[in-house]
Design brief:
The chain has 199 residues and is an alpha+beta fold. 46% of the residues lie in helices and 13% in strands. Among the domains are: 38-103 and 141-167, Aldehyde Oxidoreductase, domain 4 (2-Layer Sandwich), CATH 3.30.365; 106-139, no CATH class. It contains 5 helices and 7 strands. The longest helix has 30 residues, at 2-31.
Length: 199
């Protein structure tokens, strides 16, 4: 009986450490962003400011990771990025996102749990958070279930804003002015003296 207690205690301790380590690894992996897939094939003189914005000397390309089969998914994704990037949608090209885990669909977990999308209760939110883990770890780059806008609304706007502010910071450093003194308009950074620097 004494040996059985020792084995059970040792097994419990080892099992507890393994579970805690697994949880810690899972939390770390969920918080670690994926690398920018556009960096792999970036041509000379081009910049991939986010996984959704690529700028070359002659074009601004917006990456739209959700497929379009006639519902306007590409257009809405491009508009979300373009609005924050401060470009006219007519100024840009669009490309589908390459197959990559960085483009995982963050809205799929809403569809994968047995709760209404309007249910903001603790259990519903916890279930969505739990379902986010396999969606991210498996890199579920899926179009469907009317998830294009819920998935992209915040992250595509943020991608456009990050790209815009990065361009302003580069212009500020290049011209020795404060970034706060700059503004953007129609695909250009406007210097305090009114000079335009095209993206």
């Amino acid at each position: 009986m004494g040996r059985a207690k020792t084995i059970a205690r040792r097994t419990f301790l080892i099992g507890s450490v393994a579970v805690a380590g697994g949880v810690a690894f899972g939390v770390w992996r969920m918080r670690t962003p994926y690398d920018n897939p556009l960096m792999a094939d970036l041509p000379e003189g081009a910049a991939a400011l986010t996984p959704y914005v690529r700028i070359t000397g002659d074009a601004i390309t917006l990456i739209t990771p959700r497929a379009d089969v006639g519902q306007g998914a590409v257009s809405v994704q491009a508009m979300l990025i373009a609005e924050e990037l401060d470009v006219d949608p007519a100024q840009v090209a669009t490309e589908f996102g390459p197959p990559d885990r960085a483009y995982w669909n963050t809205a799929l977990s809403d569809e994968a749990v047995p709760f209404r999308s309007t249910d903001q209760g603790w259990l519903a939110e916890t279930a969505r958070d739990v379902m986010d883990a396999p969606m991210k770890l498996l890199g579920m780059q899926i179009t469907g279930g009317s998830t294009t806008v819920p998935d992209g609304y915040e992250k595509l706007r943020r991608a456009g804003a990050v790209a815009r502010e990065t361009l302003k910071a580069a212009a500020a450093r290049l011209h020795g002015v404060e970034r706060a003194a700059l503004r953007t308009e129609a695909g250009a950074v406007i210097l305090p003296d009114g000079a335009r620097l095209s993206y």
